[in-house]
């Protein structure tokens, strides 16, 4: 089974399904989203969409309801594997996780986007996730810092029952991300949006059992992301694990 471990709701959903078909991807982990860059038709409209992304990444975004509704609608298609992001400043994180994630049959939590220097804010979520052994996905590209990655590794060691996935290969701090994930057994590294192809090669070489193929669609492309993994691996067990085997184990899929 080929599993894209990182994708966001598309508008329309049918466009996303067509991308998965083209890439030969069976299923995709799906996160809710506020910005929709795929809606943009020119630079001005793209700037408007990206302003919503900037707000989310800086920790200024509010109002999860619309994103949750879009995600619920997309999850009516069983090719998608639902993850739910939760507010990091919620008063009752444990109750929220129980009601909105566990009771609704979501497979995990994410993509969490703490502000720069604020990775420690995910601790209550990670604590709640550990009670249910839920994987948690955290944004890894800028504005996430190297210090944030260090904090994530510390928290992962504190809550090893909640698998912690660093997305986007840790961004510009990819070498540090590889080291931290390699040395922290409860961490995983998702490989989307790599700037240079040998970062993907080295990540898989160092962490063959805990690296995950992902596209970060619509920001990335499933066809290109899969081709990158296949370019730096040989046919066989390691490639199969990266393209879906490890994700299937992590998500409890048969």
From TrEMBL:
SUPFAM superfamilies for the chain: Metallo-dependent hydrolases
GO molecular function: hydrolase activity
InterPro entries with a match to the protein in the record: Amidohydro-rel (IPR006680), Metal_Hydrolase (IPR032466)
A Pfam match: Amidohydro_2
Domain (Amidohydrolase-related): residue spans on this chain: 3-253
Highest taxon in the source lineage: Bacteria
Positions of transmembrane segments: none
Protein name per Swiss-Prot or TrEMBL: Amidohydrolase family protein
Species per Swiss-Prot/TrEMBL record: Actinomadura barringtoniae
